[in-house]
Amino acid sequence: MIMKIIKIVLITLIIAAIAVVFGFADKEQTNQIFTKENLIINIDYETENRFLDYEDIKDEVSYLKTPGQKFFNTLNTLDLERKIGNNSAIKDAQIYKTIDGKLHIDVKQRKPIARIFSKEESYYMDEFGKLMPLSSKYTSRLVVVNGFINEPYSKRYLLNYSSLEDSVAKKTLLDDIYLLTDYIHNSEFWRAQIEQVFVNKDFEFELIPKVGNHKIVVGGVDNLHTKFNKLLIFYKKALPKTGWNEYAEINLKYKNQIVCTKMNS
Protein backbone atom coordinates (compact mmCIF):
# COMPACT_ATOMS: atom_id res chain seq x y z
CA MET A 1 0.00 0.00 0.00
CA ILE A 2 2.82 2.38 0.93
CA MET A 3 4.63 1.62 -2.33
CA LYS A 4 1.46 2.39 -4.28
CA ILE A 5 1.14 5.77 -2.53
CA ILE A 6 4.79 6.56 -3.22
CA LYS A 7 4.31 5.66 -6.89
CA ILE A 8 1.28 7.96 -7.15
CA VAL A 9 3.17 10.78 -5.47
CA LEU A 10 6.14 10.36 -7.84
CA ILE A 11 3.89 10.39 -10.88
CA THR A 12 2.14 13.51 -9.60
CA LEU A 13 5.48 15.25 -9.02
CA ILE A 14 6.69 14.32 -12.52
CA ILE A 15 3.50 15.69 -14.10
CA ALA A 16 3.80 18.86 -12.06
CA ALA A 17 7.44 19.28 -13.10
CA ILE A 18 6.56 18.84 -16.78
CA ALA A 19 3.77 21.39 -16.42
CA VAL A 20 6.19 23.87 -14.84
CA VAL A 21 8.70 23.34 -17.65
CA PHE A 22 6.10 23.84 -20.36
CA GLY A 23 4.66 26.82 -18.54
CA PHE A 24 8.10 28.40 -18.29
CA ALA A 25 8.80 27.69 -21.95
CA ASP A 26 5.45 29.18 -22.98
CA LYS A 27 6.17 32.30 -20.95
CA GLU A 28 9.59 32.59 -22.55
CA GLN A 29 8.10 32.21 -26.04
CA THR A 30 5.47 34.86 -25.26
CA ASN A 31 8.21 37.41 -24.67
CA GLN A 32 10.61 36.14 -27.35
CA ILE A 33 11.16 38.19 -30.51
CA PHE A 34 11.39 36.07 -33.67
CA THR A 35 14.66 36.51 -35.57
CA LYS A 36 16.58 34.60 -38.22
CA GLU A 37 18.60 32.92 -35.44
CA ASN A 38 15.42 31.07 -34.47
CA LEU A 39 14.91 29.72 -37.98
CA ILE A 40 16.02 26.21 -39.00
CA ILE A 41 15.54 25.26 -42.65
CA ASN A 42 15.99 21.79 -44.09
CA ILE A 43 15.65 21.22 -47.84
CA ASP A 44 15.24 17.65 -49.09
CA TYR A 45 16.42 17.82 -52.69
CA GLU A 46 15.94 14.08 -53.52
CA THR A 47 18.01 14.61 -56.69
CA GLU A 48 20.99 16.72 -57.73
CA ASN A 49 18.69 19.59 -58.75
CA ARG A 50 19.12 22.78 -56.71
CA PHE A 51 16.27 25.13 -57.56
CA LEU A 52 16.02 26.33 -53.95
CA ASP A 53 18.40 27.41 -51.23
CA TYR A 54 18.25 28.68 -47.65
CA GLU A 55 17.79 32.32 -48.68
CA ASP A 56 14.79 31.48 -50.91
CA ILE A 57 12.94 29.90 -48.02
CA LYS A 58 13.99 32.60 -45.55
CA ASP A 59 12.65 35.27 -47.91
CA GLU A 60 9.24 33.59 -47.77
CA VAL A 61 9.12 34.30 -44.03
CA SER A 62 8.19 37.95 -44.34
CA TYR A 63 8.45 38.50 -40.56
CA LEU A 64 12.23 38.50 -40.92
CA LYS A 65 12.02 41.64 -43.02
CA THR A 66 10.78 43.57 -39.98
CA PRO A 67 13.03 42.32 -37.16
CA GLY A 68 11.73 42.83 -33.65
CA GLN A 69 8.14 43.19 -34.80
CA LYS A 70 6.91 39.62 -34.35
CA PHE A 71 6.69 37.53 -31.19
CA PHE A 72 7.52 33.85 -31.52
CA ASN A 73 4.27 32.60 -29.96
CA THR A 74 2.19 34.51 -32.54
CA LEU A 75 3.71 32.75 -35.56
CA ASN A 76 1.03 30.92 -37.54
CA THR A 77 2.61 27.77 -38.92
CA LEU A 78 -0.40 26.85 -41.08
CA ASP A 79 -0.32 30.23 -42.84
CA LEU A 80 3.42 29.84 -43.40
CA GLU A 81 2.94 26.33 -44.84
CA ARG A 82 0.38 27.63 -47.31
CA LYS A 83 2.57 30.56 -48.29
CA ILE A 84 5.74 28.52 -48.75
CA GLY A 85 3.82 25.71 -50.44
CA ASN A 86 2.85 28.14 -53.21
CA ASN A 87 6.46 28.27 -54.35
CA SER A 88 6.54 26.55 -57.75
CA ALA A 89 9.68 24.56 -56.87
CA ILE A 90 8.31 23.12 -53.60
CA LYS A 91 6.44 19.81 -53.46
CA ASP A 92 5.72 19.79 -49.73
CA ALA A 93 6.35 22.03 -46.72
CA GLN A 94 6.12 21.04 -43.05
CA ILE A 95 6.53 23.80 -40.46
CA TYR A 96 6.55 23.44 -36.68
CA LYS A 97 7.74 25.17 -33.52
CA THR A 98 9.80 23.50 -30.81
CA ILE A 99 9.92 24.11 -27.08
CA ASP A 100 13.37 25.69 -27.31
CA GLY A 101 11.98 28.55 -29.40
CA LYS A 102 12.98 27.35 -32.87
CA LEU A 103 10.88 27.49 -36.02
CA HIS A 104 11.60 24.47 -38.22
CA ILE A 105 10.82 24.55 -41.95
CA ASP A 106 11.20 21.22 -43.76
CA VAL A 107 10.61 21.37 -47.51
CA LYS A 108 10.80 18.86 -50.33
CA GLN A 109 11.76 20.12 -53.75
CA ARG A 110 9.77 19.06 -56.77
CA LYS A 111 11.51 16.70 -59.18
CA PRO A 112 11.40 17.59 -62.89
CA ILE A 113 11.52 14.77 -65.46
CA ALA A 114 11.50 16.72 -68.73
CA ARG A 115 12.18 20.15 -70.16
CA ILE A 116 9.60 21.30 -72.68
CA PHE A 117 10.14 23.86 -75.43
CA SER A 118 6.77 25.05 -76.69
CA LYS A 119 6.20 27.56 -79.48
CA GLU A 120 7.13 30.62 -77.41
CA GLU A 121 8.44 29.46 -74.04
CA SER A 122 10.22 26.75 -72.09
CA TYR A 123 9.38 25.07 -68.79
CA TYR A 124 9.84 21.86 -66.82
CA MET A 125 7.37 19.04 -66.19
CA ASP A 126 7.66 17.26 -62.85
CA GLU A 127 7.11 13.65 -61.78
CA PHE A 128 3.36 14.22 -61.36
CA GLY A 129 2.80 15.96 -64.68
CA LYS A 130 2.73 19.41 -63.15
CA LEU A 131 4.55 22.25 -64.86
CA MET A 132 7.44 24.16 -63.31
CA PRO A 133 8.99 27.45 -64.48
CA LEU A 134 12.68 27.61 -65.30
CA SER A 135 15.07 28.72 -62.59
CA SER A 136 17.83 31.32 -62.77
CA LYS A 137 19.73 29.35 -60.11
CA TYR A 138 19.97 25.94 -61.75
CA THR A 139 19.46 24.22 -65.10
CA SER A 140 18.46 20.58 -64.88
CA ARG A 141 19.83 18.12 -67.46
CA LEU A 142 16.77 16.20 -68.62
CA VAL A 143 15.21 14.75 -71.73
CA VAL A 144 14.22 17.65 -74.02
CA VAL A 145 10.74 17.78 -75.58
CA ASN A 146 10.20 20.08 -78.57
CA GLY A 147 8.55 20.31 -81.97
CA PHE A 148 4.95 21.18 -82.75
CA ILE A 149 3.96 22.13 -79.21
CA ASN A 150 1.68 25.09 -78.61
CA GLU A 151 0.77 24.48 -74.99
CA PRO A 152 1.42 27.64 -72.92
CA TYR A 153 2.67 27.29 -69.38
CA SER A 154 -0.12 29.48 -68.04
CA LYS A 155 -2.78 27.13 -69.44
CA ARG A 156 -2.29 24.39 -66.86
CA TYR A 157 0.63 25.01 -64.51
CA LEU A 158 -1.67 24.45 -61.51
CA LEU A 159 -2.81 21.02 -62.74
CA ASN A 160 -1.16 17.63 -62.64
CA TYR A 161 -1.86 14.50 -64.63
CA SER A 162 -3.34 12.50 -61.76
CA SER A 163 -5.96 15.21 -61.09
CA LEU A 164 -7.37 15.20 -64.62
CA GLU A 165 -10.34 13.14 -65.73
CA ASP A 166 -9.60 10.38 -68.22
CA SER A 167 -11.60 12.11 -70.93
CA VAL A 168 -9.46 15.23 -70.59
CA ALA A 169 -6.14 13.44 -70.22
CA LYS A 170 -6.63 11.54 -73.46
CA LYS A 171 -7.09 14.79 -75.41
CA THR A 172 -4.24 16.84 -73.98
CA LEU A 173 -0.85 16.85 -75.68
CA LEU A 174 0.93 17.72 -72.43
CA ASP A 175 -0.54 14.66 -70.76
CA ASP A 176 0.69 12.45 -73.61
CA ILE A 177 4.09 14.07 -73.17
CA TYR A 178 3.89 13.24 -69.47
CA LEU A 179 3.04 9.58 -70.09
CA LEU A 180 5.96 9.18 -72.50
CA THR A 181 8.60 11.09 -70.51
CA ASP A 182 7.48 9.47 -67.26
CA TYR A 183 7.98 6.05 -68.84
CA ILE A 184 11.45 7.04 -70.03
CA HIS A 185 12.37 8.60 -66.69
CA ASN A 186 11.36 5.52 -64.72
CA SER A 187 13.68 3.29 -66.75
CA GLU A 188 17.37 3.63 -65.95
CA PHE A 189 18.27 2.32 -69.42
CA TRP A 190 15.95 4.57 -71.44
CA ARG A 191 16.71 7.57 -69.27
CA ALA A 192 20.36 7.15 -70.20
CA GLN A 193 19.64 6.40 -73.85
CA ILE A 194 16.98 8.93 -74.94
CA GLU A 195 18.10 12.53 -75.36
CA GLN A 196 15.16 14.19 -77.09
CA VAL A 197 11.44 13.73 -77.73
CA PHE A 198 10.18 15.45 -80.89
CA VAL A 199 6.49 16.11 -81.61
CA ASN A 200 6.01 16.05 -85.39
CA LYS A 201 3.35 17.89 -87.42
CA ASP A 202 0.96 14.94 -87.00
CA PHE A 203 1.42 15.20 -83.21
CA GLU A 204 3.18 11.86 -83.12
CA PHE A 205 6.27 11.28 -81.01
CA GLU A 206 9.77 10.65 -82.33
CA LEU A 207 12.77 9.90 -80.12
CA ILE A 208 16.35 10.95 -80.68
CA PRO A 209 18.84 8.64 -78.89
CA LYS A 210 22.22 9.61 -77.50
CA VAL A 211 23.86 6.71 -79.35
CA GLY A 212 23.31 6.18 -83.07
CA ASN A 213 22.17 8.47 -85.90
CA HIS A 214 18.65 7.08 -86.20
CA LYS A 215 15.33 8.42 -85.00
CA ILE A 216 12.75 6.23 -83.28
CA VAL A 217 9.11 6.73 -84.29
CA VAL A 218 6.84 5.91 -81.34
CA GLY A 219 3.61 7.33 -82.73
CA GLY A 220 1.09 7.68 -79.94
CA VAL A 221 1.45 6.81 -76.26
CA ASP A 222 -0.60 3.62 -76.51
CA ASN A 223 1.14 0.35 -75.57
CA LEU A 224 4.37 2.05 -74.52
CA HIS A 225 5.64 -0.98 -72.68
CA THR A 226 5.19 -3.17 -75.77
CA LYS A 227 6.85 -0.63 -78.06
CA PHE A 228 9.87 -0.09 -75.85
CA ASN A 229 10.21 -3.82 -75.27
CA LYS A 230 10.33 -4.38 -79.05
CA LEU A 231 12.95 -1.67 -79.33
CA LEU A 232 15.04 -3.19 -76.56
CA ILE A 233 15.02 -6.60 -78.26
CA PHE A 234 15.98 -4.93 -81.56
CA TYR A 235 18.84 -3.11 -79.84
CA LYS A 236 20.14 -6.33 -78.29
CA LYS A 237 19.77 -8.68 -81.26
CA ALA A 238 19.82 -6.67 -84.50
CA LEU A 239 21.99 -3.59 -84.03
CA PRO A 240 25.08 -5.48 -82.82
CA LYS A 241 25.08 -7.27 -86.18
CA THR A 242 24.24 -4.34 -88.46
CA GLY A 243 25.83 -1.48 -86.52
CA TRP A 244 24.26 1.51 -84.79
CA ASN A 245 24.44 3.71 -87.88
CA GLU A 246 22.83 1.32 -90.36
CA TYR A 247 19.32 2.76 -90.07
CA ALA A 248 17.93 6.28 -90.42
CA GLU A 249 14.58 5.42 -88.85
CA ILE A 250 13.21 2.71 -86.54
CA ASN A 251 9.41 2.71 -86.55
CA LEU A 252 7.55 1.13 -83.61
CA LYS A 253 4.02 2.20 -84.60
CA TYR A 254 2.96 -1.06 -86.18
CA LYS A 255 1.70 -4.02 -84.19
CA ASN A 256 4.03 -7.01 -83.82
CA GLN A 257 6.72 -5.58 -86.08
CA ILE A 258 9.46 -3.00 -86.41
CA VAL A 259 9.82 -1.16 -89.71
CA CYS A 260 13.31 0.17 -90.40
CA THR A 261 14.56 2.58 -93.04
CA LYS A 262 18.23 2.30 -94.00
CA MET A 263 20.53 5.24 -94.36
CA ASN A 264 20.43 6.84 -97.82
CA SER A 265 17.82 4.37 -99.03
Describe the structure.
With 265 residues, the protein is of the alpha/beta class. It folds into 2 domains: 7-109, membrane protein fhac (Ubiquitin-like (UB roll)); 112-262, 3-Layer(aba) Sandwich (Rossmann fold), CATH 3.40.50. 34% of the residues lie in helices and 24% in strands. It has 9 helices and 12 strands. It has helices at residues 2-31, 54-60, 77-85, 153-156, 166-169, 173-185, 188-193, 224-237, 239-242, and strands at 39-44, 90-97, 103-109, 112-117, 122-126, 131-132, 143-147, 194-199, 205-209, 215-219, 247-251, 259-262. Strands 6-5-4-7-8-9-10-11-12 form a 9-stranded mixed β-sheet. The protein has a 3-stranded mixed β-sheet with strand order 1-3-2, covered by helices on one side. Strand 2 and strand 3 (103-109) form a beta hairpin. The chain starts with a helix and ends with a strand. The relative contact order is 0.08.
Radius of gyration: 28 Å
Q: Largest beta sheet: what is the strand line-up?
A: 6-5-4-7-8-9-10-11-12
What string gives the helices and strands in order? HEHHEEEEEEHHHHEEEHHEE
Q: Give the proportion of residues in helices.
A: 25-40%
CATH topology of the largest domain: the name is Rossmann fold
Largest sheet: 9 strands, mixed
Total strands: 12
